[in-house]
Amino acid sequence: MYGWIWRHLPGNTWIRVLISLLLVLVVVYVLFQYVFPWAEPLLPFNDVTVNN
Amino acid sequence: MPVRVVVRTFSELCITVGALIVLFVAYVLFWTGVKADSAMDHQIDTLQNQWSKGSVAVEQPRPGPSPSQSESQSDNPSPAQDQEQGQPQTPTPYKDGKPFAVMYIPRLGFTWNKPVLQGTGVDILKKGLGHYAGTAQLGQKGNFSVAGHRRTYGDPFKDFPKLRPGDAVVLTDGTTWFTYRIDTKPYKTLPSDVAVIDPVPRKSGYKEPGRYLTLTTCEPEWGHSHRLIVWAHLDATQPAEAGKPEALRR
Q1: Helix, strand and coil percent figures for chain A, each rounded to 5
Q2: What is the ipTM of this complex?
Q3: Residues of A in contact with B148 (CB under 8 A)
Q4: What's the CA gap between A30 and B8, in Å, rounded?
Q5: Is the separation of the CB atoms in B231 and B212 below 8 Å?
Q6: Which residues on B lie below 8 Å from A36 (Cβ)?
Q7: B202 in helix, strand or coil?
Q8: Which among B28, B187, B196, B214 is the top mutation candidate for probing chain A, defined by the most A β-carbons within 10 Å of its own β-carbon?
Q9: Of B55-59, B233-237, B244-248, which gets the smallest average pLDDT?
Q10: Torsions phi, psi for A31 (to 5 deg)
Q11: Does A48 touch chain B if contact means CB atoms closer than 8 Å?
Q12: Per residue in B134-166, pLDDT tens?
């Protein structure tokens, strides 16, 4: 999987490293901005009220 | 060769899942706190801007700066309707999702202060403490009930079990300081026990109607099987111009 991505990145090693880092940052951003906020309410920490 | 590919792909998946879990834990423990702190600061700024825009100036001076007993006061969150002997108190309802007060609990830290917003929805509790809609308003007769996160989103009620009878819970709505005194040790109950936010909560030991406050959070710290509750009664009020109440001075 990661090998496949690496082989398909353009440029020499340094450019590939740079692009890889950018990709990682994009993934982390998407996770923190969209995926985790969606997943977090599924955990029990939000239940602080008494209700029926 | 295929075995090699299978093993490699499986390993990569494991590493990916592990990294995801570490990131998610970092998000829950750390990032929600960062977000909540800035959201709460923003809410408090909003309130202080509102208050500095004259709502305090309209307020009539209270008799004397010394804390007076709750019975002799009729405190009204709405300055426009502030009448000492007004008709049965009909304060303006709080706007859903909007902040209307700041809470201070010295026991939880000298600098501990959180905005109180109207409503107890998930999104509201990310920005501060939530006032149960349908319970009494601040300082009014009945039970002013507030919920807050024990963990995540700034951990506002992390030290909830440290609360003891006699501890002060101070709130201000910009015109008045309300000092409540806690009467009970944290009381553990089930999430379905809505009677704890009744106007006269049954388990609190209060017998007659009064001006009460209830705080609720989750128990255990990282779980949701139970709730922790403390009850307090309104001990004193004083106008905002009189400065911070005794409980907040060092």
Answers
A1: 75, 0, 25
A2: 0.89
A3: 48
A4: 26
A5: yes
A6: 23-24, 27-28, 31
A7: helix
A8: B28
A9: B55-59
A10: -60, -50
A11: yes
A12: 999 999 999 999 999 999 999 999 999 999 999
Annotated catalytic residue within B149, B224, B226, B233: B149
Residue in B42, B131, B218, B233 annotated catalytic? B218
Task: Give the model confidence (pLDDT) of B169-216 as tens digits.
Answer: 999 999 999 999 999 999 999 999 999 999 999 888 899 999 999 999
Structural domains of chain B in order of their starting residue, each with its CATH number? 2-83+91-248 (2.40.260.10)
Q: Is B224 a catalytic residue?
A: no
Residues in Cβ contact with B59 at an 8 Å cutoff, skipping those fewer than 6 apart = B79, B82, B175, B176, B239, B240, B241
Determine, for residues A32 and B216 on separate chains, whether the beta-carbon distance falls below 8 Å.
no
Locus of tokens 């009064």? B210
CB pair distance less than 8 Å for B27 and A2: no
- How far is the C-alpha of B217 from the C-alpha of B191, rounded, in Å? 10
A36 to chain B: closest CA residue: B24
DSSP H or E segment with residue A6: helix A2-8
Is B149 a residue of the active site?
yes
Specify whether the CB–CB gap between B240 and B175 falls below 8 A: yes
Distance CA B193, CA B42 (A): 33
For A26, residues 6+ apart whose C-beta sits below 8 A from its C-beta are: none
Chain A positions in Cβ-Cβ contact with residue B9 (cut-off 8 Å): 1
Element (H, E) at A22: helix A13-30
Question: Tokens at residue B6, please?
Answer: 């299978």
